[in-house]
Amino acid sequence: QVQLVESGGGLVQPGGSLRLSCAASGFTLDDYAIGWFRQAPVKEREGVSCISGLDDSTYYVDSVKGRFTISRDNAKSTVYLQMNGLKPEDTAVYYCAADRSTVAVGRLVAGTLGPSAHSTLEVWGQGTLVTVSS
To answer: What are the Cα distances from residue 68, in Å, to 10, 16, 31, 49, 71?
Structure first.
């Protein structure tokens, strides 16, 4: 069964750190671009970061730039999102998604294509909750 499983979410105080993992099963991530998305309560799902399936180039939305780092370990078929300097506004359910098109993932993360197009990505995880609160 082809699936992505996120883990690593939890409750953290403002300024703290978490590392999210996105593990693939049923397929290998080598040729896939991976995007991280998040959805806060009563808000639309939005892009956070992505990593290319071609050359491991990365992209971050402005709100997380300098605080979040995306990386991949193809041997483990896992992509990570290291989140430092967390803020209450980072509270959300975080999802990862995989697609063989780096362009498609990039457009969705950057917001060039809206949330209605998210379903076009090949594989989505079930999400992991991150809560930033004192």
So the answer is: 16, 12, 23, 8, 10
pLDDT in tens, 91-112: 999 999 999 999 999 999 998 8
Q: Which pLDDT score is estimated for 127?
A: 97
Buried b (16+ CB within 10 A) or exposed e, 86-122: beeebbbbbbbbbbeebebbbbbbeeeeeeeebeebb
Sheet holding 78-83, edge to edge: 3-7, 18-25, 78-83, 68-73
Tokens 């930033």 sit on residue:
132
Structure tokens at 26: 């049923």
Both tokens of 115, joined, read 């949330």
DSSP β-bridge partners for residue 125: 4
Q: Could you give the dihedral angle defined by the CA atoms of residues 11, 76, 23 and 55, in that order, rounded to the nearest 10 degrees?
A: 100
